[in-house]
UniProtKB/TrEMBL annotation:
Cleavable signal peptide: none
DNA-binding among keywords: yes
Gene Ontology MF annotations: DNA binding; DNA-binding transcription factor activity
Name of the molecule in the record: MarR family transcriptional regulator
Domain of life: Bacteria
Matching PROSITE patterns: HTH_MARR_2
Residues annotated as domain HTH marR-type: 1-126
Lineage summary: Bacteria, Bacillati, Bacillota, Bacilli, Bacillales
SMART domains (UniProt xref): HTH_MARR
InterPro entries membership: HTH_MarR-typ (IPR000835), WH-like_DNA-bd_sf (IPR036388), WH_DNA-bd_sf (IPR036390)
Family matches, as Pfam families: MarR
Keywords from the UniProt entry: DNA-binding, Transcription, Transcription regulation
Length: 132
């Protein structure tokens, strides 16, 4: 699974290069856009990344103008994260690229088998979550 993940990530990285965003940054930006105003901890959980990595990625996304952080009202130490207009425009450009990358990676595999793969990977993730 690790080898395939790296191959898909490298393919996506190559396709995203002209957009000045890495696959890791893309994953975090997309999660932010799914539910605006999350705290960094929630984003890390949704993106499947640890908090320090997520903080570093959010800092990079903020420096590029794709997200903004606002101090939380209840806890000034935590930040609420929102995508910017520039970030939302980038998302509209990247979603088709990601979809095409997945389609290219699963070329020749039936829709039923791709759905089975997704179910199996989710089950593996749930099994691991129960163990940790």
């Amino acid at each position: 699974m690790g080898v395939i993940y790296r191959k898909i990530s490298n393919l996506l990285m190559h396709r995203l290069k002209e957009h000045d965003i890495t696959p890791e940054q893309w994953a975090v930006l997309y999660r932010v856009s799914e539910r605006e105003g999350m705290i960094q901890k929630e984003i890390a959980e949704r993106a499947g990344k640890d908090r320090p990595t997520t903080t570093r990625i959010l800092d990079a996304l903020e420096a590029k103008g794709f997200v903004v952080k606002q101090a939380g009202e209840q806890d000034r130490r935590s930040f609420l994260v929102f995508s910017t207009e520039k970030g939302r425009a980038l998302i509209e450009q990247i979603v088709p690229i990601e979809k095409q990358t997945i389609a290219d990676a699963t070329d020749g595999i039936s829709t039923a088998d791709v759905e089975l793969l997704h179910r199996l990977l989710r089950q593996i993730g749930e099994n691991i979550d129960r163990l940790t």
